[in-house]
Design goal:
Length: 327
């Protein structure tokens, strides 16, 4: 009897799990595996979204600083008064010559088409300033004319290198009128300031057409020829650019009203600018849907309802060289 009980107990210990026990164990294992995988996936998604957000905000801050600096410097012409007409000693294509007109600090095209043409009935920029079919529709274009903030040469003192192909606002002496000329032609004992005009716009792609990464780009005068240089894209993910100008109608340097589609006469009265940019992540984020609309001044961008992250950034910039002409 005792031997039979011992054999039975031993056989039960060696028989393993029952079907019910095995099913429960498998179910628990699968559940735990699912939970762990879900947590890992969520962690990865959070990491990817955080990285995309950080990069997007860095791009936006850089674009804001760049555009703000260009607007503040617009119209700066060496040591002469803003809006002075400087005679150009080099002439070339239509856009090249357009950027040599120093008497107009900046030019604005509002809510352009994909061809870069303004929707309202105003004069468009010259054709070689634009990229037909490649502009971000509804965005603005800004053309800025300015010199560097510091001289390269100042009557015998050398502060920076003078490249023979660069453009300079230059004069032989304090008693000579300034001219625009190449570095190879400047008087090394005179005064020369690097001339840095450019056309700024949002292109509907970054590197390859169709890559769907809108970017802040620029066109500048060529260095080897008197035509426009190839387009340079500066910052990826800039989806929309809008600028509104604060006008001083009474001459007291106070802003009386803002306009989004200024005329040439309006720009002469502008003393400040509100700058808006809409920044977008470079790739869609899994599980995210952007259902927000965005107001860029008087313009409302409806919800895209896609997987991209977006941020709206804005600032107000004093147009220093335009405002000084009101004094």
């Amino acid at each position: 009897m005792i031997l039979a009980q011992f054999v039975h107990a031993r056989s039960c210990r060696e028989c393993g799990f029952s079907l019910v026990e095995l099913t429960i164990a498998i179910a628990l294992g699968v559940t735990l595996s699912f939970v762990v995988c879900h947590l890992l996936l969520q962690s990865k998604r959070s990491y990817v979204a955080s990285q995309a957000l950080a990069r997007m905000e860095d791009n936006g801050r850089y674009a804001m600083r760049y555009l703000s600096h260009e607007l503040r410097m617009a119209g700066h012409l060496a040591d002469i008064d803003p809006r002075t007409r400087v005679r150009a000693m080099v002439l070339g294509s239509a856009c090249f010559n357009f950027l040599m007109r120093t008497e107009v600090p900046f030019v604005h095209s509002n809510d352009v088409t994909e061809d870069g043409q303004p929707k309202i009935d105003v004069e468009a920029l010259p054709g070689d300033c634009l990229l037909p079919g490649k502009h971000k529709a509804e965005s603005d274009i800004l053309a800025v004319r300015r010199s560097a903030s510091q001289p390269s040469l100042l009557y015998g003192s050398h502060y920076a290198s003078v490249d023979s192909n660069d453009l300079f606002v230059s004069r032989q002496s304090e008693y000579h009128l300034p001219v625009l000329q190449r570095g190879r032609d400047v008087n090394r004992n005179g005064a020369s300031w690097l001339y840095q005009p450019q056309v700024l716009f949002v292109r509907n792609f970054s590197t390859l057409q169709g890559d769907n990464i809108p970017s802040l780009c620029r066109k500048r005068p060529g260095r080897s020829t008197n035509r426009m240089a190839p387009t340079e894209c500066l910052i990826e993910g800039i989806e929309m650019l809008q600028i509104e100008y604060g006008l001083d109608d009474t001459g007291n340097l106070q802003i009386d009203r803002y306009v989004a589609a200024p005329t040439a006469d309006d720009l002469e009265q502008a003393v400040a600018a509100r700058l808006y940019i809409l920044v977008r992540s470079l790739r869609e984020i899994a599980g995210h849907t952007d259902s927000r609309s965005y107001r860029l001044g008087s313009k409302v961008i409806p919800a895209a309802r896609d997987g991209y992250l977006r941020r709206l950034m804005q600032t107000t910039v004093l147009l220093r060289n335009n405002a000084v002409m009101h004094l």
